[in-house]
Write a structure and sequence with these properties.
alpha/beta, Malonyl-Coenzyme A Acyl Carrier Protein, domain 2, Alpha-Beta Plaits, 2 domains, six-stranded mixed beta sheet, four-stranded antiparallel beta sheet, 13 helices, 15% strand
Length: 289
């Protein structure tokens, strides 16, 4: 079975999506539509902007979403049998599965970026990648530090924690003492996938409830549960919960494999998810769309 996966914030790079724009009329039409929806020239920033330009939350999230979704929509042989997205990538997966329309999804992505930026300004925080420790050890150590939680289960031996800056600093020391190979602070704007994102969750929830979702054409494996779903109410609830809950990518990929995934196809800038899938199962074939 073909498992299509979509990356999240952090996959961006200058020049992303330009190959699509120059090779497909349909892609150009979708980029132009995106410019109109967002009210600024996102395409120009993606193609000509600097790395710093692409780090701005209101640019990053729409940019990664557009590269991922348009790449899938213009592909001749795009036929997903199961889909999943890492954090922001879940919105791309919803479009790919037919659960959300392109325009509605882009509106939600823009709202998500705005709400997250406001939450970051209200409750400053950060994240750190912990390498070389078992998930269970990291979970127990997080319980010892107020304001710190597991955020991204990326692959065995790589888990990102999230929380207050003071808490993350303390947690990193505990992780090193426990034998972590590295406890690496990340250059991010806030404590994503933690309770500090609660203001953003509330704002995004209202926007999600106002949008019409359809039954997807194939199961979507959501970050919050790591299980497949085709139920619209369940999909919406999980999407709302995602902002303050951990991304269970390891568990999602493992469940997709258990359910028959025979190849993982990444749609979007870079090859981040292909690398994570290889670390979850070295024998699993991976490729770019």
């Amino acid at each position: 079975m073909k498992a299509y996966v979509f990356p999240g914030q952090g996959a961006q790079f200058p020049g992303m999506g330009h190959d699509l724009y120059t090779s497909s009329e349909k892609a150009r039409e979708l980029f132009e539509k995106a410019n109109q929806i967002l009210g600024f020239d996102i395409a120009k920033i993606m193609f000509e902007g600097s790395a710093e330009d692409l780090r701005q939350t209101n640019v990053t999230q729409p940019a990664v979403f557009l590269d991922s979704v348009i790449r899938a929509l213009v592909a001749d042989d795009f036929a997903p049998e199961m889909v999943a997205g890492h954090s922001l990538g879940e919105f791309s997966a919803l479009v790919a599965s037919g659960a959300l329309g392109f325009e509605d999804a882009l509106h939600l992505v823009a709202k998500r970026a705005e709400a997250m930026q406001q939450a970051c300004e209200k409750e400053p925080g950060t994240m750190a990648a912990i390498l070389g420790l078992e998930d269970e050890v990291i979970e127990e150590l997080c319980k010892k530090v107020e304001g710190v939680v597991p955020a991204n289960y990326n692959c065995p031996g790589q888990l990102v924690i999230s929380g207050t800056k003071e808490g993350i600093e303390k947690a990193c020391e505990l992780m090193k003492e426990a034998g972590a190979k590295r406890a690496l602070p990340l250059p991010v704007g806030g404590a994503f996938h933690s309770p500090l994102m609660e203001p953003a969750r509330e704002e995004l929830a209202a926007a999600i409830e106002a949008v019409t979702f359809s039954t997807p054409a194939c199961p979507i494996y959501q970050n919050v549960t790591a299980k497949p779903s085709t139920d619209v109410a369940e999909i919406k609830a999980n999407l709302i919960a995602q902002l303050t809950a951990p991304v269970r990518w390891t568990q999602s990929a493992q469940q997709m494999m258990a359910d028959g995934a025979s190849v993982f196809i990444e749609s979007g800038p870079g090859k981040v998810l292909q690398g994570l899938v290889r670390k979850i199962d070295r024998k699993m074939p991976v490729q770019s769309i």
